[in-house]
Amino acid sequence: MYVKQNAKQDNLESCYYSDILASRNFIQIDEIARLKNFVMPISGGEHKPECDHLPSSSIIIPYRNRTEQLGIFVNYMHHFLQKQRLHYRIFIVDQNNTNLFNRAKLLNIGAKVAIDNGYPCLILHDIDLIPLHYGNIYACSKVPRHMSSSLDTFRYNLPYLTLFGGAVAILSEQYKEINGMSNLYEGWGGEDDDFYERLVKHNLTACRFCASVSKYTMLRHEKNLKKSGDRFNLLKKATERSNYDGLDSLNTEYTVQKKPLYTHIIVS
Amino acid sequence: MSDDDGESLCCCEYYDKDKNRSHLLATCCFCEDFDEGFESLITGKGFPQHRRQKFMATVQDRLRLPWRGGAKTVSIEAVIPIIVLPTIFIVAAQSLWWTVFSFSTVTVFLLYIFKFLIKVTPKTKFFFVWSVTSIILLYIIFEFIVIPFLEILFEENIALSLLIGGFLFCLYTLKVRANQYHKFQADSENLLHPGTRFHNCSICQTTVPDKDHHCVWYDCCISRQNQCLFIMSLVFAFAALLYSSNLTLTSVCHPFELYETILLPDDCSEVYQAFELGISFVSAIYSMILAVIVLILLLQQILLVSIGLTRKEWNKLPFSSKCLLGVTSRKSHNRGFIRNWSRIICWTAPNYSIVSHT
């Protein structure tokens, strides 16, 4: 049903996806910085393939002060997503203050902007994660999908079954239904587990693709993991809070700028 | 004292060097030599030599572990590894330079103490305690620090534990067999067993048939009867050490896949940012160093068994002969490659007593 949300555009032929899904080639880690061949996107980092495509995806990336990674990531993702013949737009949500990094809140803001722009599918993505398989298609499935289940820094193993962070695909409708993520997790950790609790509460069982398709590498960076001291207490009441803490309780100012390669949302 | 006779000791009680019944709780009470010696020290006469010796003897005597049937003495040098090893690990976990510094210090320390202890107290348990402490420490760090990173699969953990189990089984069986030498010692004079040679081991103070060498790290003699177990224990130890260091390093470092099958670490620059990462990394490095040493010993054993030499004979060979892998040397025990191996693999306890009666 959701597949038909995009009206048939100008009698274009349907995009061909089988070869991408069946592809067996992995992208080598040393190729990442070199894969920059892509069609220049429309202003704001949006690209449309010349065929009738899957529902549009918005790639939402919480960000602060990692210029080098931003360059690698954005260039690579344009290449990767164009190979997948998707209609997509990249949103960089930039926390422009010195408070503790609030990943979940930034994702909520990014999701709000993306939903307002009419995107039916949200990909919540960390900036240091690089997908290594073209078959890991950046579109939404009927149930929320955990995309980064085979990460190199985790020895390509899944640390625990309910892990739901890193890269996640969820329909906008579902994201609104669960009231987004919690805004209260400041610092590292906990917000993804909170998110998973909300899915469980709304009977949204998550899915994963097989491990070989879900391979990711993590870009290296200085780890600044100021852990959220409150995260265990917050997590205990995760489901209770979901009614009043989330997408509808955002009271933060932000501005949206269109840059050539991405839409820049500055959160102050 | 006569009242106490016949009554069994509780785990904290013991008979001290003067045959008096004491209790561990009284360890720090009533030491005449210390009191007298200290008194003469503060009165400016210095600590007299005989008092000092007696005091050290009392310390040795009172340093005991609670044990079933009475507390047992612990020699001081055997306690050193239990304190030194964890300390070294904690210090080394601070930074790269601390790792280099503490590991080189330990190497020098071990070389020095090896020469010293072999000369002074050859029967010391120091090296055996060092081995046991290493195994326990490495396993504790793996199970309680590396596993909670949640990056190691249950199957991988089981596989490693099985390797360690295999090693411990070999070590135990090997030591049980080594202790059987004591039985043979009494009638070794009239033993008649073709091809068996008897050597006196100065450390074990027993006669050992077909001795290869005395292993201080296992604290027993290695001879033809347990050489096969010895080699197997080295194989298990090598596999366990290498595997555990690989699991740990790929957990704490940035890994990469070699030929899309083997996971190897490639960037360990962030391991000193947290204590848990640091100590895991240090334990992995320690495991790797041990693995290399074990591998050298293993290859040496394989070579020596193949050419039919014992370790003792090998050590006596001139350097030029060692370079040629001992092929040119005289080998009185050599029975050919297959027989050399079959006699240690298919070793069965010979019935010495029946032979001696005929």
Concise structural overview:
The complex is a heterodimer of chains A (about 270) and B (about 350). Chain A is of the alpha/beta class and about 270 residues long.
Distance separating the two termini of chain A: 38 Å
CATH architecture of chain A: Alpha-Beta Complex
Count of individual helical segments of chain B = 13
- Helix tally of chain A equals 7
Shape of chain B from CA axes?
globular
Task: Give the uncertain stretches of chain A in residue-range form.
Answer: 1-7
Give a structural overview.
The complex is a heterodimer of chains A (268) and B (358). Chain A has a single domain, classed as Spore Coat Polysaccharide Biosynthesis Protein SpsA, Chain A (Alpha-Beta Complex), CATH 3.90.550. In chain A, 24% of the residues lie in helices and 18% in strands. Chain A has 7 helices and 11 strands. In chain A, helix 2 (67-83) links the parallel strand 2 (57-63) and strand 3. The termini of chain A are far apart. Mean pLDDT of chain A is 85; it is low at 1-7. By secondary structure, chain B is mostly helical. Chain B folds into 2 domains: 13-74, no CATH class; 151-345, no CATH class. Chain B contains 13 helices and 10 strands. Chain B has helices at residues 32-42, 49-62, 76-92, 96-120, 126-146, 154-179, 181-186, 227-252, 275-307, 311-316, 319-323, 337-345, 352-357; strands at residues 13-15, 21-23, 64-65, 72-73, 198-201, 206-209, 211-215, 220-223, 254-258, 262-267. Chain B has a two-stranded antiparallel sheet. A two-stranded antiparallel ribbon of chain B has the order 3-4. Chain B has a two-stranded antiparallel sheet with strand order 5-6. Chain B starts with 12 loop residues before the first strand and ends with a helix. In chain B, 26% of the residues are buried. Mean pLDDT of chain B is 79; it is low at 353-358. Chain B: It is found in: Membrane. Chain B: Pfam families: DHHC.
